[in-house]
Amino acid sequence: MQNLQGKTIVFFGATGGIGESVCAEFCKAGANLVLVARNQDKLSKLKEKLGEENSSTISADASSILDVQKVFAQSFQKFGGVDAVVISVGTWKQTSINNSAAEIVAASDELETSIARPVIVVGSVAQEFLRKQGRGVIFNISSHAADRFLPGNLAYASAKAKVSRFIFNLGEELKGTGVTTCDIRPALVDTPDNRKGSPHLSEEQWSTTVQPTDIAEFIAESIENQNIPSVKFFESGVVL
User: Fold this and answer.
1) Mean pLDDT of 215-234
2) Model pLDDT for residues 190-222, shown as the tens digit of each residue
3) H helix or E strand, kind and range, residue 11
4) Calpha distance 156→54 (Å, rounded)
5) ∠ CA(15), CA(150), CA(140), 5° rounding?
6) CA 184 to CA 155: how far, in whole Å?
7) 49-57: long-range contacts (C-beta < 8 A, 24 or more apart)?
C-alpha cells in the first residue's frame, strides 16, 4: 500500500468491524491516526493493538456537533492539519414487508440516529475545518445497498441512501475549495463481525468478498487525488 508517512487521518467509527481492519492497514503504512469512537475502553484496546507511536484516541459522539468540533480542534492542534476524514458509523437492522409498520418505522428511526445524523454532523463539521486549510478529503463508507435492491433492507438502505446523497451534494458544493468527498459503497466486507454473522460461508466464498485492504488502499491512493470519483463501488462475489 502507498506510504502514508506524514499523512493524518481522522477515523470516525474506528472500533467497528470495518474500522478496525482499515485502521490496521493505515497504521502499517505509517499514517498518523486519530481514532474516534464512543467507547473509550474499545479505543484503548485498539490503540494498544495498533501501536502507540502514530495513533491517538478521542472518545466522542459523532452525532454531537460539539464533540465532533472537539475532535477536529484536537487533531489540528496535535498534527497541524488533517489530510483525510473517514466516516464508518452505524449498524445493520433487517426490515422487510414481513415486519409490522411499527417495526419498520422504529428501525428507520434507530438508523437515522446511528447512521444518518452522525454522517451529516461529521461531514458538516469536517468541511468547515478542511476548507480553512484549503485541502482534504472526506470519505464516507456507505454500502451498495444505498442504490441497489437487497431484500430485507427497507430501513438500512434508506438510511444509507440518505447519507450517500448528502456526501455527493457536499462534494458538489465544495468544488473549487480544495476539499473533496467520496462515497465508498462496498458489498459484503470480510470482517470478523461479518464472519460471525454468516458462518455458513466457506473460506473460498470469503475470499471473493470485499477485503478491508482494498478499501484502505483506495483511500491511501486517493488522499492527494483532486480528481477522486464522487462514488466508488467495491463488488463482492457473495451477495447476502
Assistant:
1) 92
2) 888 888 878 888 898 998 999 889 999 999 999
3) strand 8-12
4) 34
5) 35
6) 19
7) 49/20, 49/24, 50/23, 50/24, 51/27, 54/27, 54/30, 55/23, 55/27, 57/14
For the stretch 50-91, pLDDT in tens is 876 788 999 999 999 999 999 999 999 999 999 999 999 988
Contact criterion met (CB below 8 Å) for 219 and 22: yes
Fold that domain 8-234 belongs to in CATH: Rossmann fold (3.40.50)
123 and 168 Cβ atoms separated by less than 8 Å:
no
At 42, which amino acid appears? K
**Closest to 74 measured CA to CA, from 125, 141, 26:** 125
The C-alpha cell that represents 217 in the structure block: 488502499
Q: Look up cell 461531514; give the residue.
A: 123
**Position 105, amino acid:** V
Report the b/e string of 203-223 with b at 16+ CB within 10 A.
Answer: eeebebbbbbebbbbbbbebb
